[in-house]
Amino acid sequence: MLDPDLARDLADRLRDAGYTYDGVAARLGPEGLDGLARNSTVPSEAALHGARDPQATLIRAFALQQVVEADALKAVLGPAADAPELVELDGARARAAVELRPYDFEHAGGTHSGWLASDLTPTLDGRLARPRTDFVLGLSPASITLAQLTMRMPVDRALDLGAGCGVQALHLATHAAHVVATDLNPRACAMTQLTAALNDVQVDVRQGSLYEPVDADTFDLIVTNPPYVMSPPTGRRLVYREGDHTADGLMRAVVTGAPTHLNPGGALQVLGNWAITADQPWQDRLADWIAPTGCDAMVLQRERLDPYEYIELWLADAGLTGTPEYAPRYAEWAAYFTQLGIVGVGMGWLTLYHEQRDDPSLTFEEWPHQVHQPVGPAFAAHPAALTAARQPDAALLAATLVVADDVTQETLGRPGAADPDHIVLRRSTGFGRAAEVDTGLAAVVGACDGDLPVGVLIGAVADLLDVDADALIPDLLPRLRRLIEQGYLVPTVGL
Q1: Which of 58, 129, 256, 363 has its CA 20 to 30 A from that of 273?
Q2: Considering the domain boundaries, does residue 102 fall inside one?
Q3: Terminal CA-CA length for the chain
Q4: Does residue 475 form part of some domain?
Q5: Of 369, 386, 403, which one is at a domain's C-terminal end?
Q6: DSSP 368
Q7: How far apart are CA 149 and CA 223, in angstroms?
């Protein structure tokens, strides 16, 4: 890792040269940025027009992974150019030893502008290259998604489990007083340390497997995108994606080991996948892991891949497409899935809440629908909403509720009809839920402005519908509870 003073000097030099997210975006334009997202450097090179200024030199070295003039790179980097973990020097030529990626994100305190350190992209510009076994992945769609689903309430202690390049630790540092980052891969630990140093944030980086490095430590928030690829044991493992467990055993270990390291009220958030087997629904498989923890859980399966889709995805990721290894490796993997009875792979989001309830709530949903990022606030609101929804009937009838700010109502029916065929409540944030309601429930929801208790509102609606209120209550209360749990209705007082 760079000395902290040298890291601060390097950060100042990168910033002064315009090697920031905004600076690079302005220089390359949308076409250049989109090209890099596709691992193509051609649009970026076109945008540079052969320039050799300091910003262009940094872009070529660290973003486009090109060989540059050593003197030019030294002039920009200063003393850091002599650090072998950053730069490989070969006489008059130099090339980056790592990717330094400008990275900006918004948080409650403003905007963070910095950099992520990771290994160079092995497949840039269509190269057929296999990553090193200790390869450290940089920013990816998965890491972006995990950052978006993470709850951002202020906490004392947070853990980034399987830190990789340190992107989640960087986010956690904006709302956690103490951040611990762990990884089995020593190279990943070094990258996380470099990322933290470049961004001038304090992260306690520890090397080791799963929860071993944190021993008896406890946390308010644990986030992880574990190396969860379910691949057959071949002796050659890519550490950033394969955890040396059978099937989804690593995911199970992450989940079952969490309660020991969670403070009361703490949470574990996982972006991962799990095996779908022919003999058991996926919900039951995950419930077998989660129920013994005593935690509440919300699990959303965002996507389901058949075994062949899954295998092809990860063979391509390993750089095996078009190589002699592809076919035999494919056959080996397919046989492995057949042996384990795996008929599909679920991919999604899992959150454990250490609420210490006598009767924990386990929610499992197929949720392939569009969501409104970030969804972290929706996960953060769930425990309180669940508590409110579970109150006794008398407490709920005495409570006052308001409609959440993001809720709209849609009515569908034939033009001129006296009553709509369908009434739908729709949320425009978080999971983007929609709930169909009948006239009676819609009337109660529409009257929830925080002034009158639920029981009074139901009585008024019963009068309008000319039905007995005592008969309407058992019909409406369970559905009102569901709307409260899903955030359509928010208690003001009484719950």
Answers
A1: 129
A2: no
A3: 51
A4: yes
A5: 386
A6: -
A7: 10
Would strands 99-107 and 110-118 be described as parallel, antiparallel, or unpaired? Answer: antiparallel
Pairwise CA distance, residues 76 & 58, whole Å: 8
Looking at residue 242, its pLDDT comes to: 58
For the chain, the maximum distance between any two Cα atoms, rounded to a whole number of angstroms, is 91
| Domain match, 355 and 396 both | no
Does residue 307 belong to any structural domain of this protein?
yes
Residues 59-104 have pLDDT tens digits of 999 999 999 999 999 999 999 999 999 999 999 999 999 999 999 9
Structure tokens at 223: 């986030």
CATH code of the domain in which 281 resides: 3.40.50.150
468 Cβ neighbours under 8 A, 6+ residues apart: 462
Q: What is the 3-state secondary structure (H, E, C) of 162-208?
A: CCCCCHHHHHHCCCEEEEEEEECCHHHHHHHHHHHHHCCCCCEEEEC
Structure tokens that stand for 198 in this block? 């470049």
Q: Cα torsion for 9, 12, 14, 15, to the nearest 10°? A: 170
Q: What is the pTM of this model?
A: 0.93
Mean pLDDT of all residues in 322-328: 85
Same domain for 319 and 465, yes or no, is no
Q: Same domain for 148 and 87? A: no
How many other CB atoms are found less than 10 A from the CB of residue 265?
A: 12
Task: Read off the amino acid at residue 52.
Answer: R
* 358 and 225 belong to one structural domain: yes
Closest of 231, 234, 304 to residue 273, by C-alpha: 304
State which H helix or E strand residue 427 sits in.
Answer: strand 422-427
B/e letters for 283-303, b = 16+ CB within 10 Å, e = fewer, are bebbbebbeebebbbbbbbbe
